[in-house]
Design goal:
mainly alpha, 2% strand
């Protein structure tokens, strides 16, 4: 059943299920992570709402899932921070920019504390818990927390901060992932749009030239 077909009663029932799964004392923790069954059922419900644009419902789901993660795994566990990141994305989509920034900052602080500011998973943080990524494995291809913060600053029209964080995100992904990595190219594409909106033709040419080396760069 797709989210758009859920009745109010069905949505409420799903929230109860997610809450029960996430906070139950029977919810298993294996090797420091929630067991696949409990973890995937709860987050699957969240992600279905998120990716179909039902952001308010997704936020409600993430709140109960986050409560369970914090109780069972702790506030700084990779899985917990992954949920916090996704909540920030959902809040940003609803225009709740200050709340989104608070959550992004929490994720970034947690990653930097655990791994260091320049570790790959500090830049590529979004789905570490969900995809069971570990240190040394291929980073997730979703937007990084740093990149997400740049987008929020742009939406708030805090353009100097936005440029600062775009540049930080790009520098980090190029160093860690490489110039042709999909997330790097996504950031370059977003920076072209950003500088176009800012009326900076020299910057537009610079980043278009960089993007032209890779035919699959978004927005080119």
């Amino acid at each position: 059943m797709e989210p758009e077909r859920y009745s109010n009663k069905a949505s409420e029932a799903l929230l109860v299920v997610a809450s029960a799964i996430s906070t139950s004392s029977k919810c298993k923790v294996e090797d420091g992570f929630l067991s696949d069954e409990s973890y995937h059922i709860s987050l699957h419900l969240c992600l279905r709402y998120k990716y179909r644009g039902y952001f308010r419902k997704a936020e409600e789901m993430y709140q109960v899932v986050l409560a369970g993660h914090e109780k069972l795994l702790g506030t700084d566990h990779p899985d917990t921070l992954g949920v916090v990141h996704n909540m920030a994305v959902v809040l940003g989509k609803q225009g709740q920019y200050n709340k989104a920034l608070e959550l992004y900052e929490r994720v970034l602080a947690g990653r930097e504390k655990a791994l260091g500011a320049d570790h790959p998973n500090t830049f590529a943080v979004a789905s570490i818990g969900w995809e069971r990524k570990t240190i040394g494995s291929r980073p997730p291809s979703t937007l990084s927390t740093v990149h997400g913060m740049a987008i929020i600053f742009k939406l708030q029209r805090r353009y100097n901060k936005a440029q600062e964080w775009y540049e930080r995100a790009l520098d980090g992904t190029e160093k860690v992932l490489g110039a042709g990595y999909p997330e790097t190219l996504l950031i370059i594409g977003n920076m072209v749009i950003f500088f176009d909106a800012m009326g900076q033709p020299n910057k537009i040419r610079e980043f278009r030239e960089r993007a032209s080396r890779y035919p699959n760069t978004p927005y080119m």
